[in-house]
Amino acid sequence: MQAKEIAQSQLDSKLLEEIENKTHTKVSACFQCLKCSSGCPLAYEMDYLPAQIIRMVNMGLRDEVLRSRTIWVCASCETCTTRCPNDIDIAHVMDALRETALRSGKAETEENLRHFHEAFLSAIKTWGRVHELQMIGMYKLKTGRFMEDADIGKEMFKRGKIKLLPETTRGRRAVKRIFKKTS
Amino acid sequence: MKVAYYPGCSLHGTAEEYDESTQMVCEALGIELKELDDWSCCGATSAHCTNDKLSVALAARNLALAEKGQHKTLTVPCSACFQRLKAADYRMREDKQLAGEIVSLIEMPYAGNIEVLQIIQILAQPEIVEKIRVSVKKPLKDLKSVCYYGCLTVRPPKVTKVGDYEDPMYMDVLMETVGADNRFWSYKTECCSGGLAMARSDITKRLSGVLLTMADEADAECVVVSCPMCHANLDTRQNALLAEGKIPRKMPILYVTELLALAMGIKEVGALWSKHLVDPRPLLSSKGLA
Ligand code: SF4
Ligand code: SF4
Predict the structure, then answer these.
(1) A123 shares a domain with A86
(2) How many A-B residue pairs are in contact by the CB < 8 A criterion?
(3) Does B125 reside within a domain?
(4) Ligand 2 centre from A68 Cα, in Å?
């Protein structure tokens, strides 16, 4: 990452408090030991290391963290959270940043990952359980990536692993209400 | 022993062989699984990645259903569902205000009296291990295995309450009990990329390629798993990985319950091999097991 100058006016003093309140984790306790980042399996895909994201939250670099690729390629493996000597729940901070990025319309990169989450949740909202075929169909429509992994899909379909018809539950209306009340 | 059973969406779809083998093994061991009435999706990765309250509520609904059904223990084979249910329970315990909001979202009470356990945690209990030991009909002699737990079986320990989170032993104990030539390796709890597979298959290939290569280094012939997401990520991309020279050879990925059923002489398990993309039959028949 290139060093760049940051003007005082770019810093958002509310970000730290906002994320700490959402995650009940003391982000300000970070002493930059980098333990979270040395064990992160996705570090090679990230624009900022997990420790840098934590530092940026502390500093109030709102736009930079919310627009980062890091928050989307994080696989939620929880290695960072498990190893942090200061008990900072970094994986949960990543969750909070993704949600904040979506709600504020700042999410910028990795559009396909967002389409995937959307397709997945839409299937649950309809049936109460995941219907793989609907989820895959919706994802492909959104992304236009029809041929990608088509060979794997075919093999799974042949083996009965992808069902034509959805499975549902009596509680699907209750599930729908949960979606509505939390949207 | 009677326990409530949360199969989760994968076990009714892409991981039917895990569901079926779990039921076979439990029946043979006298563990009565009562499928949780009216269960719904735990929300998986997508809910917690995008909507915190939704993720806790979707998982908590199932905990509340288990309590309503007067169960004490809820067993969950899928590591991802397990971790989501455990996380909801943990969050509601730690944060009473959140617990109140969740109860009103799911329109059901939850007192926090449900113990959530993975099926491997139940099967690895000493008295069950003894039962398995005496029911072995076909020891998995010479089958060289490594056990792969992935992330969500163990992490984060404050949520999963797993003690040996860097070196879990549940499946290793089970494989040794049924006579497999089980190997140790350092990749038990490395990440397979989880839910990134559909949108970023390049990441999944890279991480699963490393795991398969390391399993080969440990001289294993198969990888034993307990998570449908790990299974899919390791099983489905081996053709491409081999063609690109990223793995030395293809290797079957088997659910621990399938291998237990095989060792316990449960014939029906034979119908499950065809569900795998990497066919385990050549390996198993070379050992006189299928
Ligand atoms: S492990 Fe914790 S203290 Fe160390 S850099 Fe990461 S967040 Fe900061
Ligand atoms: S949870 Fe995300 S940031 Fe933390 S180690 Fe895993 S991939 Fe990296």
Answers:
(1) no
(2) 167
(3) no
(4) 14
Residue range of the domain that includes A176:
110-182
**In this structure, are residues A9 and A71 in contact, taking their beta carbons and an 8 Å threshold?**
no
When pLDDT is averaged across residues B265-290 and rounded to a whole number, the result is 96
Q: Which of B69, B90, B119 is the last residue before a domain boundary?
A: B119
**A38 & A83 share domain:** yes
d(CA A21, CA A19): 5
Domain that holds residue B104: 2-119
Atom 4 (ligand 1) nearest CA: A33
* pLDDT confidence of residue A3: 61
Q: Do B277 and A159 touch (CB under 8 A)?
A: yes
- The pLDDT confidence band at residue A2, using thresholds 50, 70 and 90, is low
Given a cut of 60, whether residue B119 has pLDDT beyond it is yes
Q: Is residue A72 very low, low, confident or very high in pLDDT (cuts 50, 70, 90)? A: very high
Query: B267: burial class by Cβ within 10 Å (0-12, 13-18, 19+)?
Result: exposed
CATH of the domain at B105: 1.20.1050.140
Query: How many domains is chain A built from?
Result: 2
**A31 Cα–ligand 1 center, Å:** 6
Name, in order, each residue with C-beta under 8 angstroms of B213's C-beta and a sequence gap of 6 or more: B246, B247, B248
